[in-house]
Amino acid sequence: MNSRFVLAVLATALSSYAASLTGEISDSTCGASHAKMMAEHKDLKTDRDCTLACIKGGSKYVLVSEGKVYNIENQALPTLEQNAGRRVTVTGDVKGDTITITNITPSNKKG
Predict the structure, then answer these.
(1) Nearest-angstrom CA–CA distance, 2 and 22
(2) What local confidence, expressed as pLDDT, does residue 111 receive?
(3) CA distances (Å), 108 to each of 1, 98, 103, in order?
(4) Consecutive sets of 10 residues in the chain, 111 residues long: mean pLDDT of each?
(5) Which domain holds residue 102?
(6) How many domains does the chain have?
(7) Which residues have C-beta within 8 Å of that of residue 24, sequence separation ≥ 6?
């Protein structure tokens, strides 16, 4: 087999993979912490309130898992709004810092 072909296949396999991640559905403005935004806007009482307000203001949904923020490719997924600001387990394809979600389920795991 051609070594360049093998390297190309390995690079492709390593750059995109199926994953199951547990974390919080957040927004691209706040990322891992809603503290600053919630301090500035006293009407926002929960992470969910903050996430939904930021999305309404033009932010994108993200997944925060183990301190890493993943951009979510498929923003129109209805279960994103349902789980905004909540802890979830997602499955999907990860490519770099972006995930295309195939399933979201509520999670009770601590993170």
Answers:
(1) 39
(2) 46
(3) 47, 23, 16
(4) 57 70 97 96 96 98 97 96 97 96 84 46
(5) 17-106
(6) 1
(7) 47, 63, 64, 65, 85, 86, 87, 88, 111
Token duo for residue 89: 């387990």
In a domain, 4, yes or no: no
Cα gap 108→89, rounded to integer Å: 9
- Rounded to whole angstroms, the Cα distance separating 51 from 40 reads 14
User: Domain of 87: which CATH number?
Assistant: 2.40.50
CB atoms within 10 A of CB 33: 12
* Cα end-to-end span (Å), the chain: 44
Spatial contact of 26 and 47, defined as CB atoms under 8 Å apart: yes
Q: In this structure, what token pair is assigned to residue 23?
A: 């974390």
Q: Please say whether the beta carbons of 104 and 88 come within 8 A.
A: yes
Q: Which residues of 1-20 are buried (b: 16+ CB within 10 A; e: fewer)?
A: eeeeeeeeeeeeeeeeeeee
